[in-house]
Amino acid sequence: MKEAPVAVVMVPFPAQGHLNQLLQLSRLISSYNVSVHYVGSVTHTHQAKLRVQAHLESSFEASSQLRQPVAALLRELSPRARRIIVIHDSLMGSVIQDVALYEAKFLEDVPSLDGCFPLEFLNFIASQHQFKKLNSGNIYNTCKSMEGCYVDLLDGLEIYGGKKKHWALGPFNPLTICYDKKSNPGHRCLGWLDKQAPKSVLLVSFGTTTSLTDEQIKELAIGLEQSKQKFIWVLRDADKGDVFSGEVRRAELPEGSTGGFMSHCGWNSCLESISMGVPIAAWPMHSDQPRNTVLVAQVLKVGLVVRDWAQREQLVAASTVEKKVRSLMASKEGDDMRKRAAELGATIQRSMDEGGVSRKELDSFVAHITR
């Protein structure tokens, strides 16, 4: 039996944002002709492909059943590979506790702010801490062009009992999205976008795990209308009403007519928007989103805040929505944000080119696991 040089096993937490990040990382590593095995239940792997969101409770239950299957996969791969590298979400420590591994962590360094996480989720995170000592390094879905000073800071810290290796391999999301408009025209909104002026349309989307109250949907709709700005509003099934609904492809962001993105500031959404050079109107809902908002609005200065986290229990009035949308889409302040976002997006895209900072990070990581 011919021995494979290296086998990489990806173990994502079975929730959409986590599934997608490691799916994209798998794509990047496999481009180096390294064998990658993406682990998960059939249901959750299917969800990753279709971008369907499962409830967190079912994700907890699914993850608790994966330890034995992962161990079986490792036993199967062991005779056939010179080295097995396990890259796992930080929430899957209990699943891979039997092996020494590399950890891909995405939420570990986000402070647990009041109101960000339900108690059940905090307890689940806490239950994973005892397994941190097993990891040999950390992978971050970020780019040194964007957060270099923070990544460099981590290099000097002792984390979980010792110094770890750190790789900023992001962004994991594709930086170019190509589709044949003749053979695959996509959603009708894409055709409408093609006819709009450059940077004139606001994309409104709050991700896969957030739903708004009927009252908030109404205020948002009125505010968007009163702003007099063109927009596309993507609503989840749970939010569908008489305003707008439909499946809109991710191809909207790189469209030349998209000039702003009203977002919950989930990390995937932030990276996608910034890497495409699109500024963000931040409306954080939970989890890491409040701190992501700080990065976007205060540190990188490529966005503004629609709803401050301190006022999260309050209704965002239509007048506030109108004011913030106008500020992002029709003011000098918004133009300055668009310019900074475009410059940062171009820098991030160059980072993945040959010799770029993220490409060097990826080269370094692959060299490390294949040494």
TrEMBL record:
It holds the Pfam family UDPGT. Residues 5-54, 109-174 form the Glycosyltransferase N-terminal domain. SUPFAM superfamilies: UDP-Glycosyltransferase/glycogen phosphorylase (SSF53756). It comes from the Eukaryota. GO terms for biological process: carbohydrate derivative metabolic process. PANTHER family: GLYCOSYLTRANSFERASE (PTHR48044:SF22). This is Zeatin O-glucosyltransferase. It comes from Vitis vinifera.
